Amino acid sequence: MSRPTNHPGYESSSSKGDRLEEQVFYLFKSRNMWAIRTRRGPDNGIDLFGSCMGYSFPVQCKNLSSNVTADHIRAFVGAMSW
């Protein structure tokens, strides 16, 4: 039986994802790295763009309970080819 969405301990996966992206964004900022969040919606899987020491890079946040797989990496690389 699943918990109702109005349960005090319930947090939607969308809300968890937003919170994780925000935490990663502030982690970058706290390390004096440039970072910008993408808009919510069709972002092709890219959640942030970061830059440090002359290198720019896309960031995809995943709130997984297991390790990142090769399929995750392939999907991320595919998202960057737009």
UniProtKB/TrEMBL annotation:
GO terms for biological process: DNA restriction-modification system; double-strand break repair. One of its GO terms (molecular function) is endonuclease activity. It holds the Pfam family Mrr_cat. InterPro entries: Restrct_endonuc-II-like, Restrct_endonuc_IV_Mrr. This is 14839_t:CDS:1. It comes from Dentiscutata erythropus. It comes from the Eukaryota. Residues 16-81 form the Restriction endonuclease type IV Mrr domain.
